[in-house]
Amino acid sequence: MIIKCLPGGSFLTNCYIIADEETKEGILIDPGSQVEEVVEEIDRLNLDIKRIVNTHAHIDHAAGVEYAKKALGAEFYLHPEEEPVLQALPESAMRFPEFGRVKVPKIDRFIEEGDEIPIGKYIAKVIHTPGHTWGSICLLIDNHLFSGDTLFAGSVGRVDLTGGTTMRQLVHSIKTKLMVLPPSYQVYPGHGPFTTIDIEKRTNPFIAGGVLLF
User: Fold this and answer.
1) For residues 170 and 28, what is the distance between their CA atoms, to the nearest angstrom?
2) Does residue 213 form part of some domain?
3) Is 127:144 a contact under the CB 8 Å cutoff?
4) In what order do the strands lie in the sheet with 48-53?
5) What kind and span of H or E run contains 205?
6) String of b and e for 138-148 (b: at least 16 CB within 10 Å)?
7) How far is CA 134 from the centre of its chain?
8) 20 to 30 A Cα–Cα from 82, which one of 91, 150, 157, 197?
């Protein structure tokens, strides 16, 4: 499996290119900033990106979706509960000038818990993890978990941004849907370094009980 992480923008958002190393068929996860460079990397690797899948629709993860759709000829997948956050992109762009004018992309398919997205011989399984936003998802591809802004190395996502729920809801999603995965599974978050389920289960204060939840 090809896994390329391209951090970008002032938020250092991790955009991921995932592809089958044999067929070159792939998906793009969370194209936010510097999407032109992302498309250039896809061309350099000679990949066929058929789908853009967003873990959620905050501007630092979704500002580049429209550009990527047109450049790659790809479809855009999003959880239905995330559509209000997507529609707020132009308003969000007014607060963060680095993104310029942002167009709301058309959603080609809604994805929900348990849906499976083909990537050549691989399958990306959708895990709905409400918390950071109501429509936040994670993607599980073999032993690789792409956690968006749900779970970070040593921390978790905020819940006080557009579409956020509560910290209790977020931690519940993490404990019941992510911490049940095998300890060796790799975690690729929306920001920051990679980690594993085992490391987060043992050391993340939000999961291990070091943080008081309200």
Assistant:
1) 24
2) no
3) no
4) 2-8, 13-19, 25-29, 48-53, 75-78, 109-110
5) helix 205-208
6) bbbbeebbbbb
7) 14
8) 197
The domain containing residue 156 runs over which residues? 2-208
What is the per-residue pLDDT across 62-112, written as a single tens digit (0 to 9) for each? 999 999 999 999 999 999 999 999 999 999 888 888 888 899 999 999 999
**Mutual angle of helices 35-44 and 65-72, in 10-degree steps:** 30
Whether 7 is covered by a domain: the verdict is yes
Up-side HSE of residue 36: CA atoms within 13 Å toward CB? 1
Residue 161 lies in a domain: yes
DSSP 160: S
- What distance in Å separates the CA atoms of residue 93 and residue 120, rounded to the nearest whole number? 35
Return d(Cα 155, Cα 12) in angstroms, integer: 16
Q: Is the pLDDT of residue 213 over 70?
A: no
- Which runs of consecutive H residues, i.e. helices, occur in 14-166? 35-44, 59-62, 65-72, 83-87, 89-95
Between CA 17 and CA 148 the distance in angstroms is 14
Residue 48 placed within a domain:
yes
- 29, containing H or E segment: strand 25-29
Tens-digit pLDDT profile for residues 14-46: 999 999 999 999 999 999 988 999 999 999 999
Number of domains in the chain: 1
What CATH number corresponds to the domain at position 164? 3.60.15.10
Distance, CA of 48 to CA of 46 (rounded, Å): 7
